[in-house]
Amino acid sequence: MPVKLEASWLAVLKPEFDAPYMQNLRNFLLSEKQEGKIIYPPNNAIFNAFETTPWHKVKVVILGQDPYHGQGQAHGLSFSVQKGVAIPPSLQNMYKELATDIAGFKTPPHGNLTYWAQQGVLMLNATLTVAANTPGSHQKAGWENFTNQVIKTISAQKQNVVFILWGKFAQAKAVFIDENKHFIIKSAHPSPFSAYQGFYGSQPFSQTNAYLKNNGIKEIDWQIV
Q1: Residue 161: how many other CB atoms lie within 10 Å
Q2: Rg (CA), the chain
Q3: 121-125 and 130-131 beta bridge pairing
């Protein structure tokens, strides 16, 4: 697994790549490939969230759990899929909430969220790889150590970041975030299994923009085209 991390992120996270858990993670991924398993996203997209949203740009974090495990779906941004791939149910529900939360929002014909990432929305999965057609297969292999440190570092070294935590898994990460410096939005997950249990109507997108505006930070244009 080559380390291809955007320079500003590498400056704050370099110690992680020298940590024993990271070598164990490299060995795990190598053994998965040697066993003939297909891993998503491809190597050059594993750190895409960091490449697309440099350290100095981060103002929102949307935390996911696992990359999508179907062919051609995952490209290193949580909840996002490549253009030309069917929009997953959770993202469809995010678009439904956007349509009621953000005036004038029009549902896009694809699920590529790169435009959000380019504006400073870190689309972070807790686990950055997965074996094809095997959800959760790379959990507890070491990625959580890395992404927990990402959250801790953002909390410690930045101010006024919005953390959007959907579902119990993401909400458990709140322990790493200083609520005196940052804004945490919690609700049910947009999955079809839980969207009606508190996700719909939670207005995370307008809440985010209101907080950013109140702190003199440029708001996010949520309209994907």
Answers
A1: 24
A2: 17
A3: unpaired
Inform me whether the pLDDT recorded for 2 exceeds 70: no
So what's the pLDDT on residue 140? 94
Residues 190-200, mean pLDDT to the nearest whole number? 97
What is the average per-residue pLDDT within 92-114?
98
Cα-flanking dihedrals φ and ψ of residue 126, to 5°?
-65, -35
Indicate which residue of 66, 101, 178, 221 is catalytic: 66
**Cβ atoms of residues 160 and 215 within 8 Å:** yes
Angle of helix 20-34 relative to helix 143-157, nearest 10 degrees? Answer: 140
**Cα separation, 46 vs 128, whole angstroms:** 6
Q: What are the tokens at 154?
A: 């953002």
3-state helix, strand, coil in the chain (%, to 5): 40, 10, 45
Q: How far apart are CA 216 and CA 218, in angstroms?
A: 7
Judged against a pLDDT cut of 70, whether residue 3 lies above it is answered with no
Sheet of 60-64: strand order equals 121-125, 60-64, 162-166, 183-187
pTM: 0.97
Cβ distance 188 to 195 under 8 Å?
yes
Query: What's the pLDDT tens digit per position in 81-90?
Result: 999 999 999 9
For the beta carbon of residue 136, count every other beta carbon within 10 angstroms.
12
Q: Is 66 a catalytic residue?
A: yes
